[in-house]
Specification:
The complex is a heterodimer.
Chain A lengths: L1 H21 L4 E7 L3 H14 L3 E7 L2 H14 L6 E3 L3 H9 L3 E2 L20 E3 L1 E10 L21 E3 L6 H13 L4 H9 L3 E2 L3 H10 L4 E5 L1 H9 L3 E4 L6 E3 L2 E5 L5 H12 L1 H9 L3 E2 L23 H18 L3
Parallel strand pairs in A: 1-2, 1-3, 7-8, 7-9
Antiparallel strand pairs in A: 3-12, 4-12, 5-12, 6-9, 6-10, 6-11, 6-13
Helix pairs in contact in A: 4-11, 5-11, 9-10
Chain B lengths: L26 H26 L3 H9 L2 H34 L5 H13 L2 H11 L5 H5 L15 H25 L3 H9 L4 H30 L2 H6 L8 H12 L4 H29 L19 H27 L16 H9 L1 H33 L3 H16 L2 H12 L14 H25 L3 H9 L4 H30 L2 H6 L7 H10 L3 H24 L10 H5 L9
Helix pairs in contact in B: 1-12, 1-16, 1-17, 1-18, 2-12, 3-7, 3-9, 4-7, 4-13, 5-7, 5-13, 7-9, 8-9, 9-12, 11-12, 12-17, 13-23, 14-15, 14-23, 15-18, 15-20, 15-22, 16-18, 17-18, 18-20, 19-20, 20-23, 22-23
Classes of the chains: A alpha/beta, B mainly alpha.
Amino acid sequence: MHRLLSLSLGLMTSLAVVTTSAHAVDGTLTLYTSQPNTDAQQSIDAFMEAYPDVDVTFVRDGTTKIMAKLEAELAAGSTPADVLLIADSVTMEGLKARDLLMAHPDADVSAYADGTHDAEKTWFGTKLITTGIMYNTAAGMKPASWQDLLKDEAKGQIAMPSPLTSGAALIHTATLVDNLESGWGYYEGLAANGAQASGGNGGVLKQVAGGEKLYGMVVDFLPIREKAKGAPVEFVFPEEGVSAISEPVAILSSTQNPDAAKAFVDFLLSREGQELALSQGYLPAHPEVAVPAGFPDRSTIRVMPFDAAKALADAESNKARFAEIFGQ
Amino acid sequence: MTLSETAGPRLTLRGPAHPVWRWREGTGLVLLLAVSILAFSIAPVGRLLSAALEGGFVQFRAVLDTPEVRQATRNTLAVAFGSGAVAMAVGLVFSLALAVTDMRGRGAMAFVMVLSLMIAPQISALAFKTLAGPASPLLKLVGLAPAPGTPNPMLGEFGIILVMGLHHAPLVAITLAAGLSGLPRPLVEAALLDGAGPLQIVRRIVLPLLGPFLLSAALLVLVAGTGNFGIPALLGMPVGYLTLPTLLYQKLASFGPSSINDAAAISVLIAGLAASGVIAAGWLLARQQSRLEADFALEPFWRLGRARLPVELAVWGFIAVAILLPLMSLVATSLVPAYGVRLSFESLTFAQYGEVLFRQDLTVRAFRNSMLFAGAAAASLCCLALVFAYLLDRAAVRVRTPVLALIELPYAAPGIVLAIACILLFIRPLPLLGFSIYATPWIILFAYHARFLAIALKPVLAAMATLDSAVEEAAVCDGARMGQRLRFIILPLVLPSLLAGGLMVFLLAFNELTVSALLWSAGSETLGVALLSLEDSGLGSEAAAVAATASALVCALMLAMQSLARRLPENALPWQALAGRRIRENS
């Protein structure tokens, strides 16, 4: 009996080995992402070092735009995308509601706080990316509050991303409108102060670093990283708080290569993947991974509360309202 | 970008005096021609119109009658007319200087001028953008950069008009050069004998005779300005200054397929604006047509004497500021580690080139794709052009004229309009076949075929028209079949024109952004798309590195064409036509 048991155990083990090798991680994988091109390439290269048999390509555009591309492809019948790594979880919730995402029940999220990932494990936050204020070091007024952007010193000197391109900007808009007393009045004030809204965060960085504008609303890691390279910029976390997104990753249910897709998700959530994000200058979602140089401690960053369900419901009307205020 | 072949008053095509044997064969090829026209011209236009008018005329008007569309229409007209005026002024002065004066180095001047046209508009825009403003590496280098907080003058209406005007000036110059070379020399010589000064001759004889060409050049740049996407995309979109093509792009890129019918309506508006220009040109030209017999073509008659050196210096000075300086600025921008950093020996880095040429999948792929798409389109269009030119050459005028007009349509229409038409055609799976080429590289190749067939066809058609049919008749008598005649008799005779057309297609497709901006998908990004993506990511130095490399490739290709010049028919290269004639030794 004993021998029989050990025999069958042995058989099971060898069967298990066979099953794993049948699920070898290889083939091709297409990533749709809103990360800056260089960062996306670095993430892919690090993943491919760990999984040399997988060939990963990526497509990059602002979250709003890449979603529009995805929609067009779905309308045409199919999309080449396997994995999404985009700005915000609100968009992910929208996709999940339409059954477009594949759950990854085995993902190890033990280190992460609840709320940074979907309870049903369809999407997983990978970072904490806040939107605050950047300024060119030549600027006279050093902003400390969102209200400072309404001052005369900032007249005609503000650049900000448009929700028509950027997912971060869409969440940021929803958060500010909910949290600031003046609501949409704040954005109307910005428009009246000559603020210019267009494109993505990269464009804002370029304009402020180049000195064409003095102030910008922008995601934290861009100016903090460029400052380290010598660009004349500073980033501030305004006193009212910042808005935050988590740059979630998710697998599309239409993927032809779920094993590689899951491996990619696991890689981003692993300690190694989180250290990579740290080295790129992002605030990693993993609470035990350090904070990049130039960032304050996690506990001192004040994130404004934000209603995801409302933001999802209001996404289209928020975009339209924003476009109307800024004449787009 | 229409070059010499399309410029100027229409060629009067000779009528058919063809023997009957020509119609007894080649049914398969005629079928190919018919299918191509159906696929490349009739289907896209038809689908676009039906989508635009799907919701009825009321819906169509509702889409167009919004503040944003009205504003974008105003902007489009301002940009088209403003840049048209700049292009006309620069192009006229330039072409006159090259055609009537005895400046030295006219060949080189013309080459650089055409180079500036052959560099993609989005690259010109990027170059000028880096030239001015507080971040300009060149201005910073000499300590002349304006203080931070000063807006970049190149962003917005002024910059778009300036850059587009300079970019389209060679178009005007080439068109006018065609007219100038056709002016009869005896008229000028007679005036000289009567003691008229050169300035008088230019004012009283040359300019009036150039009238129709001035008109056609003006309309050409108006149409090009209306449809241009690359320049307002880089210089207008960042500051919220939208023209109709960029508004269309933004709508489609941000709101997805749900906005496709709105997009169709807007693109019909753009096409309408452009078409009204073309129709007006046709009408005015038809009224003004007075053909001159130029047995003795115009030669430079303005001896500058002591003024020659200063004039030459002035022309080179202009070229340096308007064309070379922006390119230098582009290179300087590609060498700094981060946008806004001051260029110095310590900060100088080639890291961006390593990044975009070897490391980043996207840009490496974009270089490969643009080469591949442009090469494939050029090769296959050369084959089609040979066959179609042969068929059209022997067709009756009443068949040929409408067929040529249909082939011209997708090229004359703004690129963004063609792109929308292609999306509409292919977003659903093809009937009967059941699969979709949307979101594959094939849709881009299809669009390139539709767009550039006219470019490949025209030089071959012109060469075919000069062939003596006796040679072919002799081959017929010897029993050569049509395929044999095409290969062994016609092909060698028209080969140079075929190659010139093919290379032009390659250059235009290689530089192209407007069509692929809307049609790219994962894996089929073109250079233009990669450039926009890098700009949007805020990677200004990397974008500059891509742009500088692409410009160097274009320049190398043009030099290669130049080295082939002796084997090509006279004036097959646009800058040769622009450089004017050599002065005869004895006069």
